[in-house]
UniProtKB/TrEMBL annotation:
Gene3D superfamilies: TonB-dependent receptor, beta-barrel domain (2.40.170.20), TonB-dependent receptor, plug domain (2.170.130.10). It comes from Qipengyuania qiaonensis. This is TonB-dependent receptor. Transmembrane segments: none annotated. Residues 74-171 form the TonB-dependent receptor plug domain. It comes from the Bacteria. Its main location: membrane. It is found in: Cell outer membrane. Residues 1-29 form the signal peptide. CDD domains: ligand_gated_channel.
Length: 933
């Protein structure tokens, strides 16, 4: 252990101060050895007596640099500036500023995180080292669920070690909360902030102002052997959205048949987010060698959206005037079209006024107990139990109104002419604006009905869809380690068992009018302030709350008894048994020190899905209910190596190699499969007919798998407060997941009535494992305090990075596939000033175009190509200094999305005017304080 002692003696006073001040600790339940005390944090020749201890944003950066330097894994991190005070308004925004990391906005909030250009499907999120259930259909954690005020640190691991359980393909995000025995004194902190959305209160009943409040208490008792931490935060904030949405585009881009907007479904959306989160931790140092930690987290999340707008069938509904509309003169001309119809007129348009509700409620419970033994003889061990559960309801209500039932419309002239609209339009790269002739806010014109006859023989005035999802996870970990002498400094062995179950129960109804009526007036008492769609030229539309109309009986709910509804239900079980063996490395090599680890992790997966299918088994023309259950059992062996060569001069060279996996989306494992007899012998996989073909989920789906190598060069300076790092990485993706047709064995399934299949081997259209491809890139990042150039710039600095990623992934057909969430370029940067209590900073983050997730009907996800975007934020603040009567008080003002950058998606045609979504969230301004006693 001579080397460990030698290196420990070189740790600078400043590094100790920022690490202790940030209360940063390794994740409980993980046996990841970051050897914090072994890494030099000072350039040769520097004296710790000359080091200035900093605080605030600079302390947060210095702590993150120290975390990066001392770890043997390649990582990035963000640390709270103070108790209950992350550098940004949300966890997602703070993470999105890390090198090689970015985010996708959801309702204006940075919520879905992409690492190294790949979206949330390819990473894993932990809370204090433990795997978590999710509030979405996939495994990705939505960071809205975790109040930033209860989080102390977030670490993004870009490479795994054998002892890191729950790792992802491109990264693992570990969200960490306060550990009370890591503080040196009692802390009581409170905070509050107000928010303002500059788009205003767009919908009746919505707000433009919101607020957050939080409080934190940390204390130690019994001679600092018992510690308690409690943090709580409540949020009540509005978010506003002006959205243009196109159904798609008709035409083929020729002069005689140009691309033209096929239909529009545009909404003004007002969201009220209410969230209460509380986190508590108790630590007991039972003896100098034994620590007990118990922690728990609870979040109640209510995201209530009012979506009001109008749906217009345009080119897909016929009635398109091929003579383009000239907005300058208000007339049409006979100029020939090019490849895109930028203007024109639609006739006989029958719009559907929409008053929709989307409400997501979720309760998240998480916690566990950790027993940690650290002997004085080199032996150490831990046991960790973790529990996570999410109960989620996603309710969507669609409510339709228009000028009449099934396109009939009113007959205001009494001459048999139905009422429809004539709409001029202009399309450009921002979307389409309109000039209608009807007033869609007139309650004498707009009635509750099925305007386009979507219900067929049923008069359908809307639809009610409630998705009830339960997700529960138990996790058990056990680890043992022994320090040894020689090239290998320690050997570690551990076991992990994870038992997860996730299920969906659909609850769906038709929204109808009582007594079979085709139309009904909107009750005067239910009418709200009209919703203004002037940003699209559509003017105001009639507004009401469909929940009120359902409650008073104006609209009624008829159960949807279709077999398609219970067939959507599923229950997925996943049981993982993992074992790992790892050796740590610590050895002098000439003028440097080699540290790292070498190990292997083996995982056995037992996955199973149960659900329903409806099949005519007895040939009586009726569908019989069949319970299905199917699954698989397989192993993954994941070797890994992390090596760091460190020099007293501040240079660190890293090399990492590993086998990595990412499990598929849980809902892709559902057994809900629709199948039947196919008599086309030419399509049979065996050449025999009849055979069975179907579509649905795939309970046999295996993970994404890749072989990866990373190489880093890092230079630390300014007493360990600054760093410049170049990262290069390559992943050979050997197994990818893609939607396609695969050969499937139906021998475990009941045989449909009719002809007996010649073979149980048939086809299934589903998500399958395919061949992979290449994924590689480089990142350049830096944190630079400007006082290294001149003392006149003391307090000034910059941090940020740029990443380039290239992929070439083949799908099942051998074509190059677009990876969800993939951006070729991501970049971010922050300029800051932080000195004597005053702080100011401006931040920019950029990502190139990517395949983005959008919420479709009933909460289901759909993906579209999103354009590149650049987001600009800024913040100023002041912390009253020691000796002031207001010592402990911090004030700050923040501005988000200052350039009002939209979130835009593009239709898959080669013209920029073919916009699918243009979502404008506006600017947000926040002002608040924190006070620490």
């Amino acid at each position: 252990m001579a080397i460990r002692s030698k290196l420990s003696a070189t740790v600078s006073l400043s590094a100790c101060a920022v690490v202790l001040g940030s209360i940063a600790v390794p994740a409980f339940g993980q046996d990841v050895d970051e050897t914090a005390e072994t890494q030099p944090t000072e350039e040769a020749g520097e004296s710790s007596d000359d080091v200035i201890i900093v605080s605030g944003f600079r302390e947060s950066l210095a702590s993150s640099v120290a975390e990066k330097r001392r770890s043997d894994l390649i990582l990035e991190s963000v640390t709270a500036e103070d108790i209950g005070k992350l550098p940004d308004d949300s966890i997602g925004e703070s993470i999105a500023r890390l090198p090689g990391v970015t985010s996708q906005r959801l309702n204006g909030r940075a919520n879905a995180i992409a690492i190294r250009g790949l979206g949330p499907d390819f990473s894993q999120t932990l809370l204090n080292g433990r795997e978590q259930t999710s509030t979405g259909d996939n495994r990705a954690v939505e960071f809205d669920q975790y109040p930033s005020e209860v989080v102390n640190q977030v670490v993004v691991y870009k490479t795994p070690s054998a002892s890191l359980v729950g790792q992802g393909l491109v990264g693992t995000i570990d969200v960490r909360t306060i550990r009370p025995l890591e503080t040196s004194e009692r802390v009581i902190a409170i905070g509050a902030k107000g928010s303002y959305a500059d788009l205003g209160a767009l919908n009746a009943g919505s707000k433009e102002f919101g607020y957050r409040v939080n409080a934190t208490y940390v204390d130690q008792f019994a001679d600092n052997t018992l510690g308690v931490a409690l943090a709580a935060a409540y949020t009540d904030e509005p978010y506003q959205l002006q959205e243009f949405n196109a159904w798609g585009y008709a035409g083929d881009g020729t002069a005689g048949n140009p691309f033209v907007i096929g239909g529009s479904k545009s909404f003004v959306t007002s969201t009220q987010l209410k969230r209460f989160g509380v986190n508590g931790t108790v630590q007991w140092e039972a003896s100098p060698t034994f620590m007990v930690t118990v922690d728990g987290f609870y979040s109640n999340f209510n995201d209530d959206q009012s979506k009001r707008g109008i749906e217009l069938p345009l080119a897909f509904g016929g009635g398109f005037d091929v003579d383009p509309y000239d907005p300058a003169t208000g007339t049409t001309t006979s100029t020939a079209f090019g490849e895109f119809a930028n203007s024109g007129t639609f006739t006989d348009v029958r719009g559907v006024v929409r008053n929709d509700i989307f409400q997501r409620k979720a309760d998240l419970y998480s916690g566990g107990i950790n027993l940690d033994y650290e002997g004085d003889d080199g032996w150490s061990a831990f046991f960790d139990f973790g529990y996570s559960r999410t109960d989620r309801n996603e309710l969507s209500i669609e409510s339709y109104s228009g000028t009449g039932y099934n396109g009939d419309g009113f007959d205001p002239q009494g001459d048999g002419t139905s009422l429809s609209d004539t709409i001029d339009f202009i399309s450009d790269s921002n979307g389409t604006s309109f000039n209608p002739t009807l007033d869609y806010s007139d309650p004498n014109l707009i009635v509750l009905t099925d305007p386009l006859g979507w219900g067929g023989s049923r008069i359908q005035a809307g639809y009610y869809n409630n998705r009830i999802i339960k997700d529960e996870l138990f996790q058990y970990r056990l680890g043992v380690a022994k320090e040894i002498e020689g090239f290998f400094s320690a050997i570690r062995f551990g076991l992990n068992y994870t038992d997860r179950a996730k299920g969906l129960t659909p609850d769906e109804f038709f929204v109808s009018l009582p007594d079979g009526a085709t139309e009904a007036p909107i009750p005067q008492s239910a009418l709200l302030r009209s919703t203004n769609l002037d940003y699209l030229g559509l003017g105001p539309v009639v507004s009401y709350d469909a929940r009120d109309l359902i409650a008073d009986g104006t609209l009624i709910l008829d159960p949807n008894t279709s077999n398609d509804i219970p067939a959507k239900a599923y229950q997925i079980s996943e049981k993982l048994m993992a074992a790992y063996l790892q050796v740590d490395i610590e050895q002098e090599l000439g003028a440097g020190v080699l540290t790292g680890n070498l190990g292997v992790q083996a995982i056995n997966t037992e996955q199973n899905s149960t659900g329903l299918a409806f099949i005519d088994l007895d040939n009586d023309g009726t569908q019989d209910r069949v319970d299905l259950s199917l699954g698989d059992n397989f192993w993954d062996v994941l070797p890994s190596m992390n090596l760091s060569l460190r020099f007293d001069s501040g240079w660190v060279f890293r090399f990492a190699a590993s086998r990595q996996i990412q499990r598929p989306q849980l809902d892709d494992l559902r057994v809900a499969i629709s199948y039947g007899i196919n008599n086309n012998e030419a399509e049979s996989p065996t050449g025999l007919a009849p055979f069975i073909s179907g579509s649905g989920g795939n309970p046999l789906l295996r993970p994404y798998r890749a072989n990866a190598v990373d190489f880093n060069v890092e230079k630390y300076f300014a007493g360990g407060a600054g760093v410049v790092a170049l990262q290069a990485f390559y992943k050979d993706i050997v197994s990818y997941i893609d939607g396609s047709r695969t050969i499937f064995d139906y021998s475990a399934f009941p045989v449909p009535a009719g002809q007996t299949p010649a073979t149980p081997i048939g086809f299934l259209d589903t998500e399958i494992n395919t061949g992979g491809g290449d994924f590689y890139g480089a990142e350049l990042s830096a944190t630079i305090p400007f006082d290294i150039f001149t003392g006149a710039l003391n307090g000034f600095g910059a941090t940020g990075g740029v990443g380039y990623t290239k992929t070439k992934i083949e799908n099942a057909q051998g074509d190059v596939d677009q990876i969800p969430g993939y951006s070729e370029w991501v970049a971010n940067g922050t300029l800051y000033y932080d000195l004597n209590g005053f702080s100011a900073r401006g931040s920019v983050r950029y990502r190139s175009e990517f395949l983005a997730d959008f919420t479709g009907f009933g909460g289901s996800a759909t993906r579209r190509l999103a354009r590149a975007e650049t987001i600009v934020d800024a913040q100023i603040g002041y912390e009253f200094q020691s000796g002031s009567a207001l010592e402990g008080l911090s004030l700050y003002i923040q501005g988000q999305n200052l350039t009002n950058a939209p979130f835009v998606s593009q239709f898959d045609v080669p013209v920029p005017e073919a916009v699918i979504d243009n979502q404008r969230y506006g600017r947000r301004f926040l002002a608040g304080f924190t006070y620490k006693f």
